[in-house]
Write a structure and sequence with these properties.
The complex is a heterodimer. Chain A is mainly beta. Chain A is built from two helices and seven strands. In chain A, a hairpin with a 2-residue loop joins strand 3 and strand 4. By secondary structure, chain B is mostly beta strands. Chain B is globular and about 70 Å long. The chains are: A mainly beta, B mainly beta. At the A-B interface, helix 1 of A face strand 1 and strand 2 of B. Chain B: InterPro entries: Ribosomal_uL3, Ribosomal_uL3_bac/org-type, Ribosomal_uL3_CS, Transl_B-barrel_sf. Chain B: This is Large ribosomal subunit protein uL3. Chain B: Part of the 50S ribosomal subunit. Forms a cluster with proteins L14 and L19.
């Protein structure tokens, strides 16, 4: 019966959006509807959590906006999302980067970048 | 009157309806073959007998086997009868009723057995407040007073007390159909439907219509 349930949602899943990890810097292109016009709004930040599976899967993006931490939770397969761009890949030791919430200033967005580590630098 | 299908609760999930993620219950409803049509001339009332599911032949008694043979219908797991009103479409023996009679946005009632909870106290069964947990109180989950004094001298009929909870036939009215999947015989009904997963449900067109459509 679980297979039946999954078959119901299968055509709504967008598997092209699954190629990012926790810690990655992403730019989420969201469709914003104003009246009958539609435009693209970009929300850029660090993915601090991915939760759920299947159609319920969601991810949280955190950014520092004018000195204030802002978080948005997106359902991954939402039709409101146009695309998800990965800016920078990171290596993290935690699945949920909630510790970033307690940090102030430069430290608040500091995650280990994959390209720097692979190049032997920190 | 109404149109009814026999079905099975599959479980819950969520789907995007437009731009919104909506919680839905997946119900496998039909196909339901018409096994018998009862008429007021012959039987004294108007009804239609429909079936659901598959049953092995050797599990059915000979008289019921004959009943299926007469209707030229494959043996079904469940047989149920539903009353037919004067303004309903005509049913013929051998017709197969499917979810195609339903459409997205339509209101339906869902009838089924609720989950059995066993013998439960008044707090769970009737949402009583119970007593304070501490400060010297000695009644915690009790129902309080059961009545008055010499008059009426008895406990009123219908007094809410502990007892068996659940496993009762209940109807949830005016649920909305979000999507109809005809090829899979599935209905996606918005929100929850009572009863356990795999339980039998009857899905019928809503009896109480909305005042403004």
């Amino acid at each position: 019966m679980q297979a039946t349930i999954e078959s119901v949602t299968a055509d709504q899943l967008d598997n092209s959006r699954l190629n990012f990890k926790v810690g990655d810097g992403v730019r989420v292109h969201t469709r914003v509807r104003e009246g009958d016009k539609e435009r693209i709004q970009i929300f850029a930040g660090i993915v601090i959590a991915r939760k759920g599976s299947g159609i319920r899967e969601a991810f949280t993006v955190r950014r520092i906006s004018f000195g204030e931490g802002v978080e948005r939770v997106f359902p991954i397969h939402s039709p409101n999302i146009d695309k998800i761009e990965v800016d920078r890949e990171s290596i993290t030791r935690k699945a949920r980067l909630y510790y970033l919430r307690d940090r102030i200033g430069k430290e608040a967005t500091k995650v280990k970048e994959k390209r720097l580590i692979e190049a032997g630098r920190k | 009157m109404s149109f009814t299908l026999i079905g099975k609760k599959i479980g819950m999930t969520q789907i995007f309806d437009g731009n919104q993620l909506v919680p839905v219950t997946v119900v496998e409803a039909g196909p339901c073959p018409v096994v018998q049509v009862k008429s007021s001339e012959k039987d004294g009332y108007e009804a239609v007998q429909i079936g659901f599911g598959v049953q092995k032949l050797h599990r059915i008694s000979k008289p019921i086997q004959g009943h299926f043979a007469k209707a030229k219908v494959e043996p079904v797991h469940q047989l149920r009868e539903f009353r037919v009103g004067a303004d309903d479409a005509e049913y013929n023996v051998g017709d197969v009723l499917t979810v195609s009679k339903f459409e997205a946005g339509q209101r339906v009632d869902v009838i089924g057995m609720t989950k059995g909870k066993g013998f439960q106290g008044v707090m769970k069964r009737w949402n009583f407040a119970g007593g304070p947990a501490s400060h010297g109180h000695m009644t915690h989950r009790r129902g309080g007073s059961y009545g008055q004094c010499q008059w009426p001298g008895e406990v009123w009929k219908g007094k809410k007390m502990p007892g068996h909870m659940g496993n009762a036939r209940r109807t949830t009215q005016n649920l909305t159909i979000v999507k109809v999947l005809e090829d899979k015989n599935l209905l996606l009904i918005k929100g929850s439907v009572h009863g356990s997963i795999g339980g039998t449900v009857y899905v019928r067109t809503a009896v109480k219509k909305k005042r403004s459509a």
